[in-house]
Design brief:
This protein is an alpha+beta fold. The chain has 2 domains: about 70 residues, no CATH class; about 170 residues, Rossmann fold (3-Layer(aba) Sandwich). The protein contains 7 helices and 15 strands. β7 and β8 form a beta hairpin.
Length: about 280
């Protein structure tokens, strides 16, 4: 496929990267733009793994949250990257393998670590000197940096799982016991972890099946915490009932914003967050 069509309510940037190939806009109509490979002869698959918007002359805040590529819905999930709205696990794994070497450049590291800090605060037992914690969706291992900075007085054994083999490799280099998983089944026994957290994972999930696995490996009275990006209206009852169905109880949530030192332009009022916390009976 040498050309693609992008439909969106907002005008898209003139240049994009599709699965590593640069495309430029060759036709612009209201609500629809046609892009062709900048280098003649370059082609992509019929269904792209990801699209990256290049921000030349366009503000990050002006990017649409959703677009349609050849009539297939894509959502902006991280930075300026769009992936299929209903991406399969294999599609997500290919995307994260593609961006793993540059992941630290495409995320707001300060905000990500701040969210991880809040999640760890919820799941690490306060009255214990040692704990075994699972980072479900470990990515490039930013959680180990937070543990070292904030929990040096405790003995925290941090484990991680991820669908991206390249991200798992980076996490291992940082000292995390990280495992590549196929699907959402982990290699750990029942009732193994004192706490489980998932940062920037929930908005990729198509079902609550992964939460069932998190419940399985969590000890009784252990806490699961995860964050939500842009939760829909009246989401609370839906999440509460679904999490109770897979075995959790004591549903609670909080929201707020984190003032960033490194970037005050994209989020001048602070980086917004919503954190959900549940417990295993």
């Amino acid at each position: 496929m040498e050309t693609i069509t992008i439909s969106s309510k907002l005008n898209f940037p003139e240049h994009i990267i599709v699965d590593g190939i640069v495309f430029h806009c060759v036709k612009n109509q209201q609500g629809e733009q046609t892009f062709a490979a900048l280098e003649k002869g370059r082609k992509i698959d019929q269904s792209p793994t990801y699209v990256q918007a290049l921000l030349k002359g366009v503000s990050y805040r002006d990017l649409p949250l959703e677009i349609r590529i050849n009539n297939k819905p894509f959502s902006r999930k991280v930075g300026t990257y769009y992936v299929p709205k209903y991406a399969t696990i294999d599609e997500l794994a290919r995307f994260f393998d593609s961006v793993a070497p540059i992941y630290h450049k495409i995320v707001l590291t300060e905000a990500t670590k701040a969210i991880i800090s809040l999640l760890l605060r919820a799941v690490i037992p306060k009255d214990e000197d040692a704990a075994t914690i699972l980072d479900f969706g470990v990515g490039v291992g930013l959680s180990t940096e937070v543990v070292r900075e904030e929990y040096s007085a405790k003995s925290i054994h941090l484990c991680g799982v991820d669908i991206s083999s390249k991200m798992v490799a980076i996490s291992k280099q940082k000292g995390i016991e990280a495992h590549k998983i196929d699907g959402f089944n982990t290699p750990f026994p029942n009732d193994y972890f004192d706490g489980v957290f998932a940062s920037f994972v929930a908005h990729y999930l198509q079902s609550f099946e992964p939460f069932s696995e998190m419940c399985r490996v969590l000890k009784s009275r252990g806490v699961l915490a995860f964050n939500l990006r842009r939760p829909p209206e009246n989401w609370q009852q839906h999440y509460k009932s679904k999490l109770e169905e897979v075995g959790f109880c004591n549903f609670s949530w909080c929201s707020g914003s984190i003032k960033l030192q490194s970037d005050g332009t994209v989020y001048p009022k602070g980086y917004p967050y919503t954190i959900v916390q549940v417990e295993k009976p």
